[in-house]
Amino acid sequence: EADIYQTPRYLVIGTGKKITLECSQTMGHDKMYWYQQDPGMELHLIHYSYGVNSTEKGDLSSESTVSRIRTEHFPLTLESARPSHTSQYLCASSDETPTSYNEQFFGPGTRLTVL
Amino acid sequence: KNEVEQSPQNLTAQEGEFITINCSYSVGISALHWLQQHPGGGIVSLFMLSSGKKKHGRLIATINIQEKHSSLHITASHPRDSAVYICAVRSSVYSGGGADGLTFGKGTHLIIQP
Predict the structure, then answer these.
(1) Nearest-5° angle of CA B85, CA B89, CA B91?
(2) Closest-approach residue (CA) in chain A for B36
(3) Rounded-to-integer distance, Cα A44 and Cα A10, Å
(4) Which residue in the set B31, B40, B86 is minimally distant from A101, CB to CB?
(5) Which pLDDT tens digit goes with each residue over B36-85?
(6) pLDDT for A104
(7) What local confidence, expressed as pLDDT, does residue B34 receive?
(8) Is the pLDDT at A109 greater than 60, yes or no?
(9) B96-105 in b/e burial notation, b at 16+ Cβ within 10 A?
(10) B105 close to B86: Cβ distance less than 8 angstroms
């Protein structure tokens, strides 16, 4: 069973608020990802990290930012939430290396609603 | 850009039926994933494969690299199998840099009725 956690699971917040979505994994994985999934649509990569102090933007442009100060922790922040940010956000991790690709383990997701 | 197409989009079947979900992709890949997403939103990885066939319990996944096609089969389907099944692929162009996450299909929404 994957040990990757996301909090909160559900968040309803007003426009303009700053929010941070938490993601933690206890597997010691270096590679971590954030995906965004709109209702009924496919997942899109918005951020990823190769390890501590490494963050990169994904395929889908996002106004969110991420940080990776510790291996196990990969939080996502929205400085000023807007209704267009309403979506589900999924965090994942893998023990992928430059010479070995391995499966990703997904967290339970955070369903964000911005009013 | 790699496109991932799944069919059918929606499938309703009776308990006990044999289920097949298909996935086609457009470019070379290094790996293909089958994922299961329950109504709560969390995703579970069912299979990762790059060739041949894998089996786990009542689930079987096959891939044909030449035809760029994969299938997920469920034998003796059960209402607890009701979920969205997602196909995702990893491009074979892996440079160790760049946006190298997975490309996802839209998913197949499966309902198994008792």
Answers:
(1) 175
(2) A106
(3) 19
(4) B31
(5) 998 877 888 899 998 999 999 999 999 999 999 999 999 999 999 999 99
(6) 85
(7) 95
(8) yes
(9) eeeebbbbbb
(10) yes
Element at B113 (helix H, strand E):
strand B108-113
Q: Is B88 on the interface with A (CB under 8 A)?
A: yes
Chain A positions in Cβ-Cβ contact with residue B44 (cut-off 8 Å): 2, 106
Pick among B6, B30, B102 to test the A interface (most A CBs inside 10 A): B102
Exposed (0-12), middle (13-18) or buried (19+): which is B62, by Cβ within 10 Å?
A: middle
- Give the three-class secondary structure for B80: helix
Give the model confidence (pLDDT) of A38-89 as tens digits. 988 888 999 999 899 999 988 788 889 999 999 999 999 999 999 999 999 9
Q: What is the pLDDT of residue B91?
A: 79
Q: What are the distances in angstroms from CA A59 to CA A9, A29, A31, A33, B23?
A: 24, 22, 16, 12, 21
Q: How many CB atoms lie within 10 A of CB A107?
A: 29
- Window 36-95 of A, Cβ < 8 Å to B: 40-45, 48, 56-59, 88, 90, 92
